[in-house]
Design a protein that fits this description.
This protein has a domain of 210 residues: Rossmann fold (3-Layer(aba) Sandwich), CATH 3.40.50. It has 440 residues and is α/β, with parallel strands linked by helices. The strands form four sheets. A six-stranded mixed β-sheet has the order 1-2-14-7-8-12, sandwiched between helices. A five-stranded parallel β-sheet has the order 6-3-4-5-16, sandwiched between helices. Strand 3, helix 5 and strand 4 form a beta-alpha-beta unit. The two termini are 40 Å apart. The chain is built from 16 helices and 16 strands.
Length: 440
């Protein structure tokens, strides 16, 4: 499906109106855009999505086709930047995006800002971005045209924060925004847009439901279906749910699905809070096996039997503990079915060749050497589905739509060079970078 933001423009607008009506406070930047323009079509042409059957009862929803980001965050990021550009044209204000991130969200937003410059949607004088990531995410940082010269790098810095916990970047960035928003607007005319708002992502991710409704509709005759996703906070699944609501309420021109699919969550041991919340229990206790140097458990089939560490991090992107979206997802699963599983790196490596083969069926090439992988979302998701089928957590006759939300290596997406990174050890360090971006 080519350019889903352009193809489903009216449906996305309906999603924005529905989300806006449910809010108790208005967003800083309006959720809804104006009339569609040729510039918008050009700007969003990297939002292609594929939906491919890769084996009986298994499909891959490819959300990673933008070569500048290789993650599903592209769709939401382009929509956010388009909203920022519309705000600039409507008000004459300049916009400075500030985004804490574990990696992918910031990469996709930087790519979207660069595309805005390239396509004429906005200029560097009107639109800029400050990205803040934890030191643990250093290997996630990707290069983009915003590093082309020193003025662009100063106006659009990538800041690495020395924090105790990766999620602390949210606290650090929110403090800087609270302290300096008024000052920056008064002295530079830049309106700071702090990007952590669920609706920024739900609205764009509603497109997943629209693609399914066209390509693989759920009819009365369809097999049972679940959507499987490697999640941190499950924004993508909540976006799908919003799109499904619009379909069933007849708020789009697309045919409504016969029912809502289940949701199946895949997580890693260090951040398994969505799965444990869904199960209503803590994770199992692991016992160290001194003979083999691994940790083992046999009490919970939803967790790895063997792992190198009970708090293992496969991918730093998945850094959120106790996400506030747990209750919403729990309610959807309780109503429509689904479940969850936690995978280890050993699980991923044991099934690596099978995962590569499945991905190849969808036209996705995964590097043969797993040490080259910098983004594990797709590998984790496919591994989780294989594990869940082996353990009958997903029935054999259930259709599974796997959300391919991210995969890249350094060869696919060049890493950010060390000299293009700004380091912050304190709130004041980050404030200096934000002020420099606004005044550049």
């Amino acid at each position: 499906m080519q350019n889903v933001l352009d193809r489903y423009y009216q449906e996305i607008q309906a999603a924005a109106r529905k989300a806006a009506a449910a809010r108790t406070t208005p967003p800083l930047i309006p959720l809804e855009l104006g009339a569609k323009s040729p510039a918008f079509t050009k700007f969003t042409e990297v939002t292609d999505v594929g939906l491919t059957q890769v084996q009986p009862h298994t499909y891959i929803l490819d959300l990673m086709r933008n070569p500048g980001a290789r993650t599903t965050k592209t769709v939401a990021s382009l929509l956010m930047v388009a909203r920022a550009a519309a705000h600039i044209r409507r008000t004459g204000e300049r916009v400075l995006l500030v985004t804490p991130t574990s990696g992918n969200k910031g990469t996709a937003l930087r790519d979207a800002v660069a595309r805005a410059y390239e396509t004429g949607l906005a200029t560097p004088d009107e639109l800029r971005i400050v990205m803040l990531a934890p030191e643990a995410s250093r290997t996630k940082l990707r290069d983009c045209p915003l590093t082309a010269n020193q003025p662009l790098r100063t106006a659009n810095p990538v800041v690495l924060a020395d924090v105790k916990q990766p999620a602390d970047v949210k606290l650090l960035s929110s403090e800087v925004v609270e302290r300096h928003t008024a000052e920056i607007f008064d002295t530079t005319g830049f309106r700071i847009w702090y990007t952590l708002d669920l609706d920024n992502y739900r609205i764009a991710d509603a497109a997943r439901a629209f693609v399914e409704a066209e390509v693989l509709p759920i009819t009365a005759q369809s097999a049972p279906r679940v959507h499987a996703h490697a999640v941190s906070s499950a924004f993508g699944l909540l976006g799908y749910h919003l799109g499904h609501q619009l379909l069933t309420e007849g708020l789009t021109a697309l045919a409504p699905p016969a029912r809502h699919p289940g949701f199946f969550l895949i997580q890693q041991l260090a951040t398994a809070d969505m799965v444990t919340s869904l199960l209503g229990t803590k994770g199992p206790e692991y016992t160290y096996d001194e003979d083999t140097g691994v940790w083992r458990q046999s009490a919970a089939i939803e967790f790895p039997a063997v792992t190198d560490h009970p708090q293992e991090v496969i991918d730093a992107t998945f850094y959120t503990k106790e996400p506030p979206t747990r209750s919403q997802v729990n309610e959807i699963v309780a109503r429509h079915g689904g479940g969850g599983v936690v995978v280890s790196r050993r699980d991923c490596l044991d099934r690596f060749e099978e995962v590569r083969s499945l991905a190849a069926e969808a036209g996705i090439t995964i590097a043969g050497d797993p040490t080259l992988i910098r983004e594990w979302s797709l590998v984790k998701a496919l591994t989780g589905v294989l594990v869940a089928r082996e353990r009958t957590l997903i029935a054999a006759d259930t259709d599974v739509v796997v959300h391919a939300s991210g995969y890249y290596s350094d060869e696919l997406l060049a890493p950010l060079r060390d000299e293009h990174v700004t380091h912050a050890h304190t709130v004041d360090d980050l404030a200096r970078a934000v002020l420099a971006a606004a005044h550049a």
